[in-house]
Amino acid sequence: MAGVIICIVVITGVVALVILAQAPAGSTTTRTQTVPATTEIPAVPQAVRRPVGQITTIPQLLPVDFSLEAGPHENCGLTCRQLTPTITNTGTETAHNVCISLVVYNSRGDLIFLNGGPSIRHCIGTLAAGESKSEPIVINADCGFLASKCLRQTLVLKTEVTSDETTIRFPDQLIAV
User: Fold this and answer.
1) Which residues, 6+ apart, have CB-to-CB distance to 85 below 8 Å?
2) What structural domains and CATH numbers belong to the chain?
């Protein structure tokens, strides 16, 4: 029984750390533009001139976009972890009603309840363009009787940030347990 309890503690720690740890640093889109086929543009400084047919990639910021980084974590019980992630609005406009949602499945497709429910949704309010917020989130994973939903499974962690303006789904994270 002590071994099962230790496994639950380890699993929960891994889940809590990885849920937000591998979120992309920033989401931007790019636009490809072909420069017109001219060899010289009069009255333009030499540094701006480009060879014929050169393709230039120009980063394009979205009105509302997010980056999410894991922060410090603390144990708050046997199967509980408290994370303090940082979310940043990397867009050019204000994001309203910003929320972070976390869902965990195992490789059999079983939903792993978090904090007694099918997911965790933590809302932080409004984020101006370029603004960041860090708030603690408590995560308690329910892996079932004798941790049967988590042991010898690959956990699939789904993270999503929503606002009135957009929804950003971060890539699924896989954790072998």
Assistant:
1) 20, 68, 69, 70, 71, 100, 134, 135, 137
2) 2-24+63-176 (2.60.40.10)
